Structure formats: C-alpha cells, structure tokens
Amino acid sequence: NYIALVSIVPALMYYYAVYTSVHNQSGKLGIVGMAKKDIPDFWQLMKKDGYLLIPVAVLITRLVIGRSPFDAALWAICLSIFLSFFRADTRLVALPPLIARWLKLPHWGTGRDWVAVRADEAMAAKIRAGGNNEEAEAAGQAVLAAEEGPRQSVLRENWMLWLAGVLFAVLNVAGMGAGPALFWSLAALFIFSSPKMMEGLERAAINSLVIGVTAGVMGIVLSGVSLPGIGMKFSSVVVGYSKIFVDAFGWYGTELPMVIIMSGAASYILGMGMTITAAYVLLSLLAVPALMSLGVPELNAHLIVLWQTQYASLTPPFALGAFVAAGIAQSDPMRTGFSCLRMAYPLYVIPFLMAYSPILMDAGASWGSIGLVWTTGFMGLYAISAGFEGFLKQNLTWLERISFIIAGGLLYVHSIWLNAAGAILMVLGILWHIKLSVFFRRGARAPASGP
C-alpha cells in the first residue's frame, strides 16, 4: 500500500503529460470537442450499451487473477459474440438465407449483413478520400438503400450450408468422429455465414502483419544479442563501469545520471524479448545496487528501474505497443512510434526526479520541498508539452517553443532558484502568447478597409 501511495503522483504526472500533449495536438490540428447538446446522457448510454463492457471487465479480471493473455482474450471474444445477439445493430453472427427464412428471421440473413459491410466500406472509403462525417453517412445510406438486390438461386446463396456439409463428411472420413466433426462444421457454417465476423477476422489478420513482421525481425536481433550472452554482459558493463566511463571523459560528479542513462539503455534492450516483470527482476539485480551505491534510496532505485522497463514498448525502432496502436488506427507504425515517444517523455524524465528530488515523499524530506517538487513537476510537464507540440492557444513560433522547453527543463532541476527562473520564463511565455493570440483574433475580425 505504501509503494502504491508514493507512486500516485508520478503516475498522475505521466497521465497529465499525455493529456496535455493530446489536447495541444488536437488544437493544432483543429480538432474540437463535441458540443454539450450533442453529448449523450451517460446513464442513458450505460442503460442501452453498458452490457457491452462486460467482455472488457472479464478480460481484465482474468488477467488480474493470473490467467494467460490468450485465455483472457478467448473468454472476452466468446462473450462478445454471445452478447452481440441481444441487439440487431450489434449482432456479429448471421444465418444462411434458407435457415433465416425458415425461422422467419429475414434480418438475420447473410445478405443483409453483406449490405451492412459494404455500407461500412463505402463510409471508410469516403473518409479516406477526405470527406467529412456527413458525406460518409450519405455514402453508407446510399448502399443501404439498395438493399440486397434480386434473390439468387437457393444453391448459390446457401453455399455455406453445402460447404459445412462437405466439411462434416470429410472430417468423418478422416476419422475425427461425429462429435468433433459436427463442432467444426457448425463453426465453419457460422463463420462463413457471418460477413461481419469474416470482416473482423480479416482486419485482425491485416493488423497483425505489422506486429508479426516487427517481432520476426527483432527476434533475429534479440537472438544475436541474447544467445551469446551479450545482453547480460552489456547490462552489467554499462551499469557497473559507468564511473570508469565518466572519469575517462573528465565528467566528475555526474556518475548518477550516467548510471540512470545506462540502465535505461539496458532496460530497452532487455525489454525487447522479456516481459516487464522479467526485465525488472533482472535489472533490479544489476542496476539497483549501483544506484544505491550512489546514494539513491532503495525504494527510489527500484521504481527508477521499474519505470525504465516500459521503454521497449514505446521507443522506436522496437515500440511493439506503438505498433499495435498503429494497427488499430491504420497509421504508419514508425510515425506512431515517434508520436508515442513525444507524448510519453515523462517516462524518461521522472526517473531523474526520483533520483534527485523527494517526489516519492522520501523520509526526512519536508512537506514544503515535496510540494515544491510536485508543483514544479506539473508546471514543467505543461511547458514541455506546449513546446513539443508547438501549440497553446495558437501555433507557437520556434522561439516560443524553445523558451517553453527551456522553462520546463529549469522547472525539473532540484534548485529553488532555477525553478523560479523556469516559472518566470513560463509565465512570461504564456502572457506573450496570449497577447499575440488576442492581436491575431482582432486582426481576423477587423472589417475590410476598401470595397
């Protein structure tokens, strides 16, 4: 409980930095929030669609109780398919036209779902072509208005029934047995009868290609590092010999930042092929003693290493977490990785605050110094986010961006005088920017002087 308590403020700083980065980036791109009148009522929305969150809760619960990610994903997928039956607009499974008509459920027919899938594709194509939401909706409605078209022959429109029958016969002949053959035949029937499910499987396969290719390439690199034992040797060398490296260049008194940088590099390499827990356990044996020998408290040293083990999933060129997000967003993987790096910069800054300041409510530190670190930390995140994204109320000039980044850097240093200088620079930058924003707004509203 104590570890969770002292970790709250650094975690809040991280999420605050991500929020400000997203907010500034949205302003730069002209993305605005929904009007208050257009925001749906929360309780009405939960009453209508809240049950769709059950698979997410099951996924998290099974991970928390120690089940494997594959087990948790399987349960969540199966539950999602089951819950989709409760409403027509969320239904994933369709029926062959012959069975749908026999059960007097025409809206469950495969043909209706194919129309819906084509409508979604038309909407997506319109968005990719630069159209707005209204144009995309119109394109989708045009496809839906066409309905299914003329009915095909029974043999042709129910091909999935005959395919399932052939599969059942083949599996029986192959000696699988009636029970397993029936199960796989019905599974094939439901999948091939359900265009929405087939589209989902297709999208999943396409999105996984980026991850698969990246994992394959990085697997080769990782094998070249880990099989000869270079990874273990590299970690111990960069951490254990940081003092020698520093002294060789005459950088006396800077051993601690070099140890933090070197342990971060080691955590990045180890994180390519290990889970976060495994990488932390290994680095806690290599990096934590070195940090403690330089005066870092034990808890701070462990949390520094724990934060650094997050690097591999966010930092290009590996950035597996960013590549997963790129697959979902259908964006360029490397650009997504560098955007992620820009937004997640607190992961690289806060370990230094843990080493040099009482951000973790260190024993013996006064509440005044702790509060000062927290305040300047949030102020620095605000300033650097504005500088990195290049936006506050309007686009920032390069001089403004540099001044905000310098102000944020000064606010991070554990010195009251440098903190004061950073705060003054940030306030002056904000006031100057507000003055320019008002000037530009007045200029935009000024009427034309001539006809």
> How can the largest sheet be summarized?
none
Number of helices: 24
Structural class: mainly alpha
Q: Radius of gyration, Cα only, in angstroms?
A: 29 Å
Q: Overall mean pLDDT score?
A: 79
The fraction of residues in strands falls at under 5%
- What's the helical proportion of residues? over 70%
Tell the overall outline: globular
Low-confidence stretches: 442-451
Intertermini distance: 72 Å
Number of strands: 0
Order of helices and strands: HHHHHHHHHHHHHHHHHHHHHHHH
Question: Which oligomeric form is depicted?
Answer: single chain
Describe the structure.
This protein is mostly helical and 451 residues long. Among the domains are: 1-31 and 353-442, no CATH class; 158-193. Helices cover 74% and strands 0% of the residues. The chain has 24 helices and no strands. It has helices at residues 2-6, 8-29, 42-49, 54-64, 69-83, 97-102, 110-128, 133-145, 154-157, 159-173, 178-192, 195-226, 230-240, 242-248, 255-271, 276-293, 298-308, 311-314, 320-329, 333-343, 346-356, 367-389, 398-412, 416-445. Helix 4 runs antiparallel to helix 5. The radius of gyration is 29 Å and the shape is globular. Residues 442-451 have low confidence and may be disordered.
